[in-house]
Amino acid sequence: MREHYAGLCEIVVMLNGKARKLVVRPMDTLLQVLREAAGHTGAKPGCENGDCGACTVLLDDKPVKACLMLAVEADGRSITTVEGLQNTAIQQAFVERGGFQCGYCTSGFLVNAWAMLEAHPEADEAIQRAWLSANLCRCTGYEGIRDAVERAKEIRRSEGEW
C-alpha cells in the first residue's frame, strides 16, 4: 500500500531493473526525482523544456524527456536511465568512435540511440536522423554520434543480439 504524507506521496518504480520506493512531491519532475531522490545523475538538466534531450530516459522501453514528466506519472512503471545501459554495444560504440565531446548530452543520445536500435536494429540514415533529432549537441557536428550508432549496429550483429 502506498503511503501518503503531508504534501508528499510514495511511488514505486522499476529503476534499471530494481524496484524502488520513492517519496515525491506531486509537482516533482521525473528528472528531479531521478537525480535527487534516486541518485541517478546520468540524465542531465539542460533546457528543462523538452528541446535538448539531455534528460532522456526510457519509460517502459520508450524514450521520454524526464524534464517534462511528473514523477507521479511513473508510478508502477519501468524506467531505464543511462546507468542501466552499462556494458552495452551502444556504450562501447560511443567510446570507440568518440560519440561525444564535452559529454553533457551523451547520456540522452545513448538512451535514445539504444531505444532506436531496439525498435529498428538496422536503422538507416533516415530513421537515425528522425530518432536522434530529439537530442541536441552543442559541441559537435554529430559525425562521431552517427559513427557510434553504425558501430553499435556492427557490434550487435556480431554478437548475435538480433
From TrEMBL:
Give the GO molecular function terms.
2 iron, 2 sulfur cluster binding; metal ion binding; oxidoreductase activity
Q: Which Gene3D superfamilies match?
A: 3.10.20.30, [2Fe-2S]-binding domain (1.10.150.120)
Q: Which UniProt keywords apply?
A: 2Fe-2S, Iron, Iron-sulfur, Metal-binding, Oxidoreductase
Q: What residue stretches are annotated with the 2Fe-2S ferredoxin-type domain?
A: 9-85
Q: What's this protein's name?
A: Carbon-monoxide dehydrogenase small subunit
Does Oxidoreductase show up as a keyword for this record? yes
Superkingdom of this protein's organism: Bacteria
User: What pathway annotation does it carry?
Assistant: Alkaloid degradation; nicotine degradation
What InterPro entries does the entry give? 2Fe-2S-bd, 2Fe-2S-bd_dom_sf, 2Fe-2S_ferredoxin-like_sf, 2Fe-2S_ferredoxin-type, 2Fe2S_fd_BS, Beta-grasp_dom_sf, Diverse_Oxidoreductases
On whether Metal-binding is a keyword of this UniProt record, the answer is: yes
Organism equals Acidaminobacter hydrogenoformans DSM 2784
Q: Which PANTHER family match?
A: OXIDOREDUCTASE WITH IRON-SULFUR SUBUNIT (PTHR44379), XANTHINE DEHYDROGENASE SUBUNIT E-RELATED (PTHR44379:SF7)
